[in-house]
Write a structure and sequence with these properties.
3 copies of one chain form a homotrimer. With 155 residues, chain A is mainly beta. Chain A has one domain: Hexapeptide repeat proteins (UDP N-Acetylglucosamine Acyltransferase, domain 1, 3 Solenoid). In chain A, the strands form 4 sheets. Chain A has an 8-stranded mixed beta sheet, with no helix packed on it. Chain A starts with 5 loop residues before the first strand and ends with a strand. Strand 4 of chain A pairs parallel with strand 1 of chain C, so a sheet runs across the interface.
Amino acid sequence: MTNMPIIKDVGITDVTFGQNVTVHRPCNLYGCAIGDNSKIGPFVEIQKTAVIGQNTRVQSHAFICEMVSIGDDCFVGHGVMFVNDTFASGGPAGGDKTKWKPTKIGNRVSIGSNATILPVEICDNVVIGAGAVVTKSIHKPGIYAGNPAKLLRSL
Amino acid sequence: MTNMPIIKDVGITDVTFGQNVTVHRPCNLYGCAIGDNSKIGPFVEIQKTAVIGQNTRVQSHAFICEMVSIGDDCFVGHGVMFVNDTFASGGPAGGDKTKWKPTKIGNRVSIGSNATILPVEICDNVVIGAGAVVTKSIHKPGIYAGNPAKLLRSL
Amino acid sequence: MTNMPIIKDVGITDVTFGQNVTVHRPCNLYGCAIGDNSKIGPFVEIQKTAVIGQNTRVQSHAFICEMVSIGDDCFVGHGVMFVNDTFASGGPAGGDKTKWKPTKIGNRVSIGSNATILPVEICDNVVIGAGAVVTKSIHKPGIYAGNPAKLLRSL
């Protein structure tokens, strides 16, 4: 015997949009804020409290979670995943958001496709290579790549 | 001159649901089983014969293939991809499923976002770091990360 | 005060299909060409000028960008992301496509799930491991894996 699941459909709910924002559907955007002239690709999810600046492009298949803020003139590549729960106590924090950690991305930060961003701070003028896994905060402009991501060269 | 393609639309077909399961659409679920109180995010595909336990969360953009079983109280992060064909003979097995290999995930296993899971066994009480590539079976509880994934510390 | 975004819906536009192509929706295919007997999974985006050969399978969640050509009898795994802009001058090239670089994939190339492919050439008869990041051209048949991808063994 099987049961009926509870079905929820993606959509655009309680989003604060700046001027001239473009959004490709299907996407799941709720409770977030997206600045002027930014673009959101298809198959993207952006959760509540996330903030996206101006002139920033979020490419297809990206996932931006709660407690992430991204600055102006940024590029979030295809399939980039942000993380707010580091499983610090050996598993998901679940509903206990006091265990979640924020991420703050500066301006003119370009994140290559399929990169993964743990809860960190990244300063202005940084390039993250495609496929990189960023596990530590970045305070110096430059190009970072690898798993875990390391400085390749300064900018 | 161009031809018309054969179009197929995603959906929910022949799925055995436990009680109180939540599913976000669009998703592509067919021929699988999903246990009580589990949650499936949007943009997810779960193929036939896959089994998901109880109280397990499958996050957005995940892909769970044939021959994968996942236990109870697990977390499958955003963009996690499972693999059943290792291209062992230098390319895809194609229709020859005797060349595919199963994956068995225990209980209380948390898999970080963008991780990739080759056909392996993972025991109970394991954390897989975000962006990790798991190429070998894991028989000891702990935190594993990197490409290929290695033990970071025991739990 | 919030504004109305510009909404665009994914679809299939200006695509040249060979015979007997199968496409799973939702997907976003535009201005590309897809050869005979190829299959495109759900949640896939393929951009203009991309060319896919015959008998090639593009799995769910893959992204194939402008300036990518893929041969016959290839396998593009789930969540594989191609890249045409290496941020060579420290950030996205934006509209300046003279800074983009092409990717050319031969025949019988199998790319594992969650792999990332920078702008490179890959010769015939190559296997790319799941989760690999391919940063350099590959001119010799074999199995390549890791971040960055290196030769594991010849074929």
